[in-house]
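Researcher: Please translate sequence to structure tokens.
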Amino acid sequence: MTLRTPVTDTLSSVLGMPKAAAGAAQLGEGAQAMRQRNLAAVLDSAEAGLGMRPTEAGLDPNWVLTFVAGAEACADLQGQAIWSALLRQELRRPGAVAVQTLRVLSELSAADLALFGRLAAMTSNDFVCKLDETYFNDHGLDATALATLEELRLVRPGDGRVKSFNSQETDRFVVHILYRDRVLRVEHGMAGRVLSFPVLRLTRAGQQIAAAMPLDHDHDYMMRMIALIRAQGFRVANAAILQRDSRDPSIVLSHAGFIEVLPLRRA
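Model: Translation complete:
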């Protein structure tokens, strides 16, 4: 008896797999059947959200082998969604996802991903604005949790890191910070100003895995980060991101109108 899966032939051929391996698994084969079902689920999800016809041109064979081995071993739904997102990104822009990212992801358990998800919800590209220790403790990110994320090669080791931003314009200070589904516009009348604040830095694997997680912004965290920026004398406005470039998500194609964030007036 054969278990049919809904994987199309397109991604199977791109990844260099025969139809039989990607499209069917013999019942009773145990672990092998489970691996094929896991891979089928990942490929189905990836192709459903791809929005383009994939081609094999540019895909590194070592990347493909590492991807297939990792996706086959992932039975967790959250993990499968991340594998699918990484495959879509690599197909859209070959070389965008590092092989090391796949290796790190393959070693993460469902519990590891749940822990990292708490921090990923606060990430802006490769950093997290470091708020007070109590805030992180309340969100399950105490010193022990952060040390665990370092050991998992998701967060860079070391403390006391500072992120600095120079102006993107010459006549005044303007910088844009992408945060999940939001973009912050930070302004000051003096072009020579530099914005800086303490951060936790993600590894490249941590950054790419966090970006692949389907998470919206954390409003409370965002408002606290904005308060820290405003305390340095900057004005801050935020807008919802409506569309990013599918090949390079760091490029925002459209966003809603900016709304300046003003301090709350106490009664």
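Researcher: Any highlights?
Model: Residues 126 and 207 are 5 Å apart (CA to CA).
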